[in-house]
Amino acid sequence: MTKEVRSEVVLDHVIMAQSSSVIDEVSLNSAVYLKLTDGHLHLMKIAGLVAKGDIVGLRTILEQKRRFGKDQATDDEGEDINRSTADGRTALHVAASTSNLECLELLLSQPTVNVDAQDVNGSTPLHLAAACSELAAVRSLVAAGANVNAVNVHGNRPVDYAKDSEVEAFLTGKMAAAAPPVPPQRKSSHLIELESELPEDITRLKGFCIDLIISQSVFRERCKETIRQLIEEKHVALHKNRLLEQAAGIQDRETSERFIDQLQYLQDENERQAATIAYLKISIQMFEHAAAQQDEYYRKNLADLTKQHNEQLQAIFRRNEETEKAFLAYQKSHSEELAELAKLRTEVASGKGKPITTKGSNASLEAGLQAEVQSLRKEQANTVAEKLALEERLKLTEKLKSMAEQENTNLRNDIGKLRKLMQEEMLKQLQEAREEQDQMDESSGNIVFTKGEGGQKRLKGATPTKLLERLLDPAVHDHHFQQTILLTHKTFISSAALLESIVSRFREAASGLPEEARSQSPVLSRIINVLKFWVEHYWSDFADDASLMQDLRAFTDDSTHNENLISSLRSAIKRKSNSDTPVVDPTTAPPKPILPRALAKRYSIDGALFTGRPILMGGLTVGLGVDRPTSWAPFSGKGKLPEGFEDVKIKLPDMEPLEVARQLTLIEFELFRAIKSREFLDLAWMKDSKETEAPNILRMTRWSNHVVQWIVTEIVSVKESTKARAAVYEKIIMLGHYFQKLKNFNGVKEIVAALQSASVYRLKKTKEAMGSKHLRIYDELARLVSSELNYKNLRAKVRATDPPLIPFPGLYQGDLVFLDTCHKDRLDGGLVNYHKLESIARSVLELEAYQQVPYSLEPIPEIQDYIRHYQLLDDDQAYNESLACEAKAN
Predict the structure, then answer these.
(1) Domain with 693 in it: what CATH number?
(2) Of 74, 229, 562, 783, which cross-links 79 as Cys (Cβ 3.0–4.6 Å)?
(3) Is residue 339 part of a domain?
(4) What radius of gyration, in Å, describes the C-alpha atoms of the chain?
């Protein structure tokens, strides 16, 4: 068969294939390069030569094109090797589909040929060669650089049209080789560690996989159980919501939205009222400070007046005393004279009975006696007159005393009125001076205030310089502001810089004052009081920073300071350096412990082993991580019991829930009291450095997790009967009830968390065997610590309760997380957001207040050790034990 006949046959074959189902999708045939008009085949010049297989003619025209250029090598039609028809097809498309390898190679050898030319359907010559199963053409095109990953408008690549297995395999290999290398994935440290721990032995690896599958199955079942629990809680919550809506008269969505708007309004109103209360508290503090100053002034004046009055009274009393002494001396002398007169009269009387010797002697004696009597009578009259005069003077003195007392009473009333007027005047002057300074600062952009509902100003933000200025200003009587700045100052200034600023301000204020006036300076007194407060309340800032401590001691040791001013600060530093300020001892006597029968012999109420506090405790300090006495360490095996005692084993059924609650409360209060205020700042417990920045918060968190898991283990470990397990369940509920009575709200949260865990919550038969009383108590505990409305019930209960108490720290940690994430540290203009600092300080200071009042309870080491050293089940083990107690319902 000649080449012309073969080309026509091939073209006819391709046209037929074009209508077939395989080629119809992409219309990939050489026939698309042809136009069928009136039965004649019209070809472009190059494409026609390729279709006929005229290699000689094709080579001639291409040689002419190369030698003479395009203008001379082409005819009038302006032929080009890459010229295409209206459908976008070129000569290379024809060569790829006609098995004319020589023409194909000749075309591919041309430097200007476009090997990836596309028609209107986006198909390339490689698409056509693959569809026609032309392996040699496919190889040539790929070798010439054809794109094996080219995609047409139908989204197909050349390999998608390959019917021949060899063509398909060849294209697949080229596609794999052309694919960009996949960069190796970077393995995490956890994945590397896991790969290093995987066993290389196939058998062991198989066992490991089986365990993993089993664990995954258990985890899946637990997830299903948890989901069922959540669905059940959701239905209960929806039912409660419907009941509440019905009780509130909410019938439709519009009514519900109106109630929500009202609630939002009430919440906003509550916040405004809280701001008003805060302002009133500040005003009260200012009044109290001004009143204290005026009271001190008036007390001093009253003391001076009282001193003068007392001196006058003392002078009157001395004169009266002298008069009384003179009167007594006169009475004594008069009595002696009367006695002498009586004696003389007796002698005279006795002389009348004797014979008269001489008349002249008797007459002279009688005359002398008469004269003496007259003299005595005269002296008696004078004495009586003096007595009357003294009595008159005494009456006058008493009258003067009553007049002085009345005058003092009037003076006190006048002083009270004057004090009130001076207080009002001083407060007015302080407010005017402060307002003037605040207006200047606010106009300069160094401070920002917000207005409350009553128009009062509240500090919103300020520069660090202005905050320190207000801290040291004696006209600012805001104790809460002082607490806030000293607690949170590290958010905007370091402790070293703060101390340096305070010392500089002290020296600046003291430089212009004489020595005797420094002790009376309100500015210097305020600075010393601020330093003293810092030392007494946040001693850890100095104890943990040797350089800061050195700077503080250098300031106090400066000989130029007034001793009266600096002595109180030195005393505070000395007291804190020797030992931390002890927590106030409980004033009430501890209640009598309720001991298990196994411990009854060890503790005797009237004996030597139990008198107020157990002697067996030795130097024990209740709390985690504290060394126990070396003389006796129960359950540890390191010490020996005292002679006559055996090592007893106690269990939860042997103990009274009230006493267990007391011992857990003692442990948890020690953990709570050990938390420092700084650990709550800047979300220290969530950082990578939490072990060093918030160690005590982590200790309490881990202890709470230990207690939760202990309760779960106690319940699921009872498999004897449902009744026995229900008894333990009831005892745990009573434990939570006594936690509430002891005001240990952290303990209540632990109990509810344990009873709501997946391993315990699913024990429906156990709960059905319990009494209604215990179920009612559990519902009360769950409502108390519920997280609904941001722990509304728990917040109200804690704030209505007097210490000692243990709050749930997670409640305050959640508030601090919200404040830290939802409020900026800096306001516009770089001002410190004081409102955020104040809110943070309010939460932390509330926790500080609860730490100051301890419990008055007797520690029982055996009960505490039982809980500390209890062998816990992990979550998977506890869930398996729960399944062993009550199998899954079908």
Answers:
(1) 1.10.840.10
(2) 74
(3) yes
(4) 53
